[in-house]
């Protein structure tokens, strides 16, 4: 992207020193102090957000949920499908492999920022529930979907997005998937804690028997978070390399992710019920079937988007640089 220039700078064509007139660079000690203060404010803001997220997570019992051995064991089992999907998204990145440090940091930030969504949901849910079924649906589309997808995108934006290793559009999908994995991990841990909390269970069949049902349910809830935030992350990557339109691009990604997320929340109960009534499946089997079908559809669309990028990347790096094979056929959401 070409930098916009003031008319004085354009007219001079570089022949005149226009420092502090229409151009600027760090020259004086005051300039250096200004740069240092700005960098400190930016860094302290990021640190402040992380510390606040940590305090909220502690307040809602997130850390105790993760450190309890029983909950931890069931949480690990519950996030295996989400971990597998996130790993596949990472493997699908045709560009350079993302460093483990950035992947782990994004995962941990996904765990931390989940607390913001928990607080927002908890504060607003009673008011929407008082409106009945319609209020609950509105709550999913106005609060849950946008809120949870925004905090997962924040997990990417706080650290990985600023790194030079975030050097391709598709990297956004990878880091978005990792943020979704972190969010799913803490959410699953909290759900499991509520279901087996206070039970003194031995490891083995007793623990599996008590927590197996909720673990199975949460195991298929996790991949959804990975899919939703990978979509939003992809558009964050697109925004990084299209700075003039970065704002609308990020909003588009959030709208897509929030819509898929909220539609899942709205339809999962109805879809499960229909499978029970018309197919005759048991409740749990009907739920698992619906989730597999729903996540399978949008997982396919996500991988299709990544595949289009992969095809374009390989064509752009071929000897003849033939990009005809990846001519745009429109977005799958348009």
Describe this structure in words.
The protein is mainly α and 334 residues long. The chain has a domain at 28-259. Helices cover 75% and strands 0% of the residues. The protein is built from 11 helices and no strands. Helix 4 crosses helix 9 (205-240) and helix 5 packs antiparallel against helix 8. The protein is globular and about 80 Å long. The relative contact order is 0.11. Mean pLDDT is 87; it is low at 201-211.
Tell me, rounded to a whole number, the average pLDDT: 87
* SSE class: mainly alpha
Helical amount among residues, as a percent range?
over 70%
Over the alpha carbons, how many angstroms does the gyration radius reach?
23 Å
- Largest sheet geometry: none
The share of residues in extended strands comes to: under 5%
Q: Which parts are unreliable, with pLDDT below 50 for 5 consecutive residues or more?
A: 201-211
Order of helices and strands: HHHHHHHHHHH
DSSP helical segment count: 11
Total strand segments: 0
Overall 3D shape: globular
Kindly report how far apart the N and C termini lie: 26 Å
Short description:
This protein has 334 residues and is mainly α. It is built from eleven helices and no strands.
List keywords for this structure.
single chain; mainly alpha; 334 residues; 11 helices
């Amino acid at each position: 992207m070409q930098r916009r220039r003031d008319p004085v700078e354009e007219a001079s064509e570089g022949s005149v020193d226009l420092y502090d007139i229409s151009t600027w660079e760090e020259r004086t000690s005051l300039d250096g102090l200004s740069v240092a203060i700005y960098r400190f404010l930016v860094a302290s803001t990021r640190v402040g957000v992380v510390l606040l997220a940590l305090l909220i997570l502690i307040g809602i019992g997130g850390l105790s949920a993760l450190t309890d051995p029983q909950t931890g064991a069931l949480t690990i089992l519950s996030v295996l499908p989400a971990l597998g999907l996130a790993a596949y998204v990472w493997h699908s990145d045709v560009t350079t492999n993302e460093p483990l440090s950035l992947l782990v940091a994004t995962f941990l930030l996904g765990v931390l920022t989940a607390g913001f969504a928990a607080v927002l949901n908890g504060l607003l849910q009673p008011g929407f529930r008082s409106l009945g079924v319609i209020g609950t649906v509105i709550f999913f589309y106005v609060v849950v979907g946008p809120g949870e997808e925004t905090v997962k995108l924040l997990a990417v934006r706080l650290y990985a997005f600023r790194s030079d290793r975030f050097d391709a559009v598709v990297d956004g999908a990878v880091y978005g998937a990792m943020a979704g994995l972190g969010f799913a991990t803490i959410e699953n841990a909290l759900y499991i804690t509520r279901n087996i909390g206070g039970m003194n269970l031995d490891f083995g069949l007793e623990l599996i028997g008590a927590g197996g049902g909720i673990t199975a349910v949460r195991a298929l809830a996790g991949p959804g978070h990975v899919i939703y935030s990978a979509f939003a992350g992809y558009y964050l990557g697109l925004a990084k390399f299209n700075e003039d339109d970065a704002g609308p691009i990020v909003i588009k990604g959030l709208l897509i992710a929030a819509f898929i997320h909220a539609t899942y929340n709205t339809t999962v109960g109805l879809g499960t019920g229909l499978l029970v009534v018309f197919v005759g499946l048991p409740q749990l089997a009907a739920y698992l079937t619906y989730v597999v079908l729903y996540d399978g559809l949008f997982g396919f669309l996500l991988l299709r988007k990544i595949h289009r990028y992969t095809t374009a990347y390989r064509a752009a790096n071929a000897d003849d640089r033939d990009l005809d094979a990846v001519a745009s056929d429109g977005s799958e959401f348009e």
